[in-house]
Amino acid sequence: MGYAARITGTGSAFPERRMTNDDVARKLTEFGLETSDQWIQERTGIVERRISNVGNEAERNSSLAARAAIKALEMAGRQAEEIDQIIYATCSPDTPLPSTACWLQQKIGAHRAWVMDINAACSGFIYGVVTAEQFIRSGHSRTVLVIGAEVLSHYINWQDRTICILFGDGAGAAVVERVAPRSRRRVLASYLSSDGTLSELLIVPAGGSALEVTPERYAQNLHKIRMSGREIFKVAVRTLSECALRTLEQARIPAVKLDWFVPHQANLRIIEAVANRIGMSMDQVIINLDRYGNTSAATIPTALDEAIRDGRIKEGQTVLTDAFGAGLTAGAMVFRR
Length: 337
Ligand code: ACO
Prior knowledge:
Elements: E1 4-13, E2 18-20, H1 21-29, H2 37-44, E3 48-50, H3 61-76, E4 85-89, H4 100-108, E5 114-118, H5 124-137, E6 143-150, E7 170-179, E8 187-194, E9 202-203, H6 215-219, E10 226-227, H7 229-251, E11 260-263, H8 268-278, H9 289-292, H10 299-309, E12 318-325, E13 329-336
Parallel strand pairs: 4-5, 4-6, 11-12
Antiparallel strand pairs: 1-7, 2-3, 6-7, 8-13, 9-10, 12-13
Helix pairs in contact: 3-4, 7-8
Bound molecules: acetyl coenzyme *A (ACO).
């Protein structure tokens, strides 16, 4: 018969330092480049973002995740020792080895858990919850901690003004637990997809085993993010709409029955286009990119956490989440809180 999975707790954490659009514009002048608060707000909806001080141990990826995880566990009424499994979605790990999940395990004392990182870029949190759901359904795990956390500022090329305006750092966490198969409050449906033919659209070319960082490549910023922004924009609107509609179809829930839409926060114009295509009003869309920018795998869990804590997303309400990211990966999930 199997089991079902429910999100029972959420948490989030951000670094202290705020960087406004005006701060970004000032920094760009160091490289002879121009931007403005008005341009960034009109094209993206972003007003400011948080940037980690990675020299400060408390603002590493796993440290932000630990703060988010503790809050999520508190909300779920669970202790770290009760976690069976940690799934840590990130594309900006503390270290290539060991996994960032291991650093987090050490920090929160989740001694019983087995842990792993997954990299699905901005889709990572949805991939993580859907993976957790499968382990729960099969009876393998009872309590899973899913993290979406990034310190992507480390990969920003400050000489590329289409990149440096977008990204910020942060961490979100969710406790996903076993419930009876027909529970009303559970993950109702999901749809995941990947298209590896689009890998070059968003890439950090050097630093992996394929291309070492040499002084020449460092000087060319090949260890930083490169992106074809306009192409991604188009693919994103199409893919996000498709994933959302397929998920709703699978759940047999029409968009009019949804209470909330929590999309990946990459660009407000992308979100508006997708909400319009799937038939949701912007009043039902949870937005946090104005204050945090694109925090990649962290956007959905942090937005979700904020809306749960401020009372917008209530128990028993139905929520659609939807993301796309480098790869190109994409996925959507609908759940009842
Ligand atoms: N400030 C001022 N002008 C700028 C800036 C800037 N920061 N950036 C670009 N411009 C200029 C360009 O040079 C261009 O000038 P031109 O017309 O004289 O050539 C003009 O503005 C328009 O440039 P576009 O690239 O067409 O601008 P667009 O409206 O597409 O906005 C943006 C660029 C914001 C990057 C947009 O394409 C976007 O958001 N794309 C999606 C990116 C995305 O979502 N990435 C995350 C993926 S998720 C993950 O996995 C991490």
